[in-house]
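Suppose a colleague, Dr. K., hands you the sequence of a protein chain of 674 amino acids and asks what its three-dimensional shape might be. Before reaching for any lab equipment, you can write down a predicted structure in C-alpha cell form. Begin with the sequence itself:
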Amino acid sequence: MGRIRLRSTLICMLAYIVFLCSCQDYSDPNFVANQIYREFVGDAPCVLLLTKDGEVGCSFKDNGLSLPLSHLRTEQEIRDFISHTTEEKRAIIIDRTYFTSAYIPLDEPQKIRHIGAILLRHNVSAPAAFSPAAAYPWQNFSLHPSSGYAWNPSGNGWALKQFSHFPIVLMRDDDADFLIAKLAAHPSQASFPQWSVEFNYQMWATHDASLCLDRHFCLPLGSESVWASFGVLNPSKQVVLGIAGLDASGMFHDRVIGANTAVSGTVAMLAAAHAISQVDSTIINSLDKQLVFAFFQGEAFGYIGSRAFVHDLVNGSCEGASCTAFQQLKLTNIAAILEAKQVGNPGASSSLFVHTERPANRDTANLLKTLMLNAGASGVNLQNASAATPGIPPSSLNAFLLANAGLGGAVITDHDATYSNPYYDSDWDGKDNVDAARVCKAATLIARSMLDLATSTQEHPEVQADCALVTSLLDCLISNASCELFSGRVLPANVRVGEFSHYVGVFQGEGAVPVSSKAAFELLFNWTLQVPSTCTPKEPCPSGQVCYKGNCTSTFYHNAISPAFAYDGTTDKYRIVDSTHPTFTESYWARLNMRVYQKEAPALEVVIFVFGLVETLVAAALLMWLRPKLGFDIVLQPPRPPPQRRQVPQTRPDNRRPEVAQAPVAAPLREDDS
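The predicted structure, expressed as C-alpha cells, is then:
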C-alpha cells in the first residue's frame, strides 16, 4: 500500500512538472541560450579587406571573444579610461562623435592596449569633421602619385589601416540604447553581475589577396558599371563623354551612403542625361559628335570601374551582347570628358569649381571655354580651381588621362583647393549633407555644355534640368529605394527598401546588380530610347544595340572588376596578373553577430557548478535507491524477447536493391528580356 501511495505521489509530481514545462516553448533548440543571451544582428562591423600588400580593416581570427562592457559617457571618462594602467581588456561603448583620433588614438596601439573592442552609438549629433579616407585619396592611382598635397584635410586614413584582433562595430540605435540602459542600471564596473559582450566576427582570410584567393577565402571587389549612348555609336564620329562614380566607402560598409561623396555627382549626371533626352531626336542624331554617359562602380577603391572600362577600351576586350557596341567606342575618339564629383555640399560656397590638368591642351581649353559660356545662363557661379592644386582632384578622370594624357577633360566640384565636404567617405555623409538646388544647377550646366561641345555650328534648345527629378533621385538613392520613381522599375513593387549601402561589394557579375547600377541602367534605358524599336528572339536588334524589354537599346552594363584579376575557369579561382591595378578583395565569413549576457562573480560560478554537480549525484543515487522499491527495474531494463523457433524460408529472398524515390529536379530559371 505504501509503495502504491509513493508511486502515486511521484506520478503526480511528474505530471505537475510536465504541466509547468508545457507553459514554455521548449521546441526551440536555443531556448536556454535565449534566456541567457541577447543576440544583436544587423549592426555594421568593420570587416576585413585584403590587397597584394596585406590586410586592411578589422579582423578577428577566433569566434567567442568575450569582454566585460563599459559605457564611457563623456570626453573625460574616455581620457581616464585610456590613461588607466589596468591590463584587463574591456569592450567600450561610446557615442559616435568621440570616434576620432582626438579621443581614440587608433594609430597608437600601445595607448589603447586595454581596449578590446569598440561599440559605437550613432544616434548623436555629428562631429565637426570626420573622414576615414586618406588626405589624398587614391594618390597611388592618380596622375600625381608623389604629390604631398592634401585634398581631404579631414582624412585620417583609418579606412585603409589594419586593426587586427580588434572588433569595431557601428550599432543600430535600438541595440545601443538597450545596452546603455542595462549598464545605467548597474553602473559599477567592479561589482558583479557584469554585463559582458561576446563577439562572433571571424574573418576567414589572412595574410594577403594572393593567398586568400588561392584558398578560396575571399573574392575581388567589383560590380557592374553602366554606360549609354544617344543612338547607335558611329565609329566615324567623335564622342563627348559625361561620367560619374556610383559608389562610396567608409569603415562600416553596411552604412555607406556617400550622399555628397558619390550620389550628388551621380544625380547631376543622370539629370543632365534626362535634360538632353528632352531635345528632339532629329537634332540629337544630327550633332557633329555623339553623346555618351558612363557611371562607374568601384571608384571608391582605386577607380576599379573606370580603370576596367579604360583597360578594355585600350585592349578592345569585352564580353556579352554589348561587345559590338563597346568596340565602336574608341579612346582616341573621345573629344571631351566632363565629370561631376561632389557637387552638392550645402555648407560650401555658392560657387562651383572646374578642375583640369595644367597646362591645358587644346581640347581642355575648349571645354573650359564652353563651361564658362554656359555657367551664367545655368545660374552657376563657376570658377577655375586654385592654381595651388596639383591638377584634377581624386576622380574617375584620372583613369582616362593616365591612358591618354592628350584627352580633354574637366571635373566639376563644389570645392576649390580642398574638399568642402567634412564627411568624405564617412557614414556621416547622409541626406543632410547634400543640397538639391546646387545639384540641379550643376546638371543644367553639364547638359548645356555637352550639347555645345557636340556641335560647332548647329543651334539647339537651351535645356534645363528638372529640379523636381533631382530631388526625387536624391531621395531614392539616399533615403528611400522603394520610391515611386524606382518602384516596379528598379525594385519590385512589393519590395520595401529604405536607406541602402553604396558599398561596391564583391564581384558577382550581372546576376547581382546593385540598386544604384540598376537605377542608372533603367533610367538611361528610358531616356535614350529616342525611337522605340521592337525586337524579338526572331527579330533581333541591329548591330550596336541589344534587346531589352522588347526594345532595342544602346544602354549596357560593363564589368567593373579590376584588371589586376583574371579568372581561371579550370580551378574556379581568381588570381592576380597585374599588380599595378587595385587588388582589393573581401574576406569570407560565416555569420557576423554579437550577444550580451550577465556574467556572475567567479566565486558564485563555482558555487553554482558545485551545486549542480551535487544535485546530479543526489538525483542519480535517489533513482538507484528507488528503482527496486517501485519496480522501475522492469521499466528501465529492456524486455527479453520470447524464444522463437527458426523459420525456414519458403521462397528465395529477394536480393534486388530497393527502388529509391527520386527527388524532383527544379527546372533552371530563365530570364527572357525580350
